[in-house]
Amino acid sequence: MKEEKHVLSLLVDNEPGVLSRIAGLFSGRGYNIESLCVAETMEAGVSRVTIVTKANEPLVEQIKKQLNKLVNVIKVHELTGNAFVNREMLLIKVFAKPEHRAEILRIVDIFRCKVVDVGKEHYTIEVTGDEGKMAAILSLLKPIGIKEIARTGAIALFREPK
Q1: Domain end: 26, 48, 78, which one?
Q2: pLDDT tens by residue, 92-141
Q3: What is the residue range of 48's domain?
Q4: Is 106 exposed, middle or buried (0-12, 13-18, 19+ CB in 10 A)?
Q5: Which of 62, 78, 94 marks a domain boundary?
Q6: What is the pTM of this model?
Q7: CA separation (Å) from 5 to 72, 78, 89?
Q8: Using one digit for the tens of pLDDT, what is the confidence trace for 42-59?
């Protein structure tokens, strides 16, 4: 069976050790986590964990069942295959030689991102969007010269029915 990316959204108790147990479930069974984001929700004591993993359908079903057995997991949703919105954030520190500055600013404008820091030799650019947008801007900035990047994992929510 073909492995595909799956986005899982978990509501969990906001307590010490919960993330460790979730990560332990994945590593103990040889599953890989491609990205992981955790933050509090509007509900006191509850956090949302967004996990992106690559697996085939039976394996994802097994992962979901095992996650549901963990005491501090309130609810597990698989977003893949449903209408959902997902975003990542990327900070890119790019070499900003005088001859490239105008081109960098055009790229920033085209991708509707922003320069969040300017130094003598570098611009730091903040990009938010989906995985395709991240790949596209990186491919345009790579020839100019990327010094370093920092990237969040995916965050995602179901879309409202129309």
Answers
A1: 78
A2: 999 999 999 999 999 999 999 999 999 999 999 999 999 999 999 999 99
A3: 4-78
A4: exposed
A5: 78
A6: 0.85
A7: 25, 11, 18
A8: 999 999 999 999 988 888
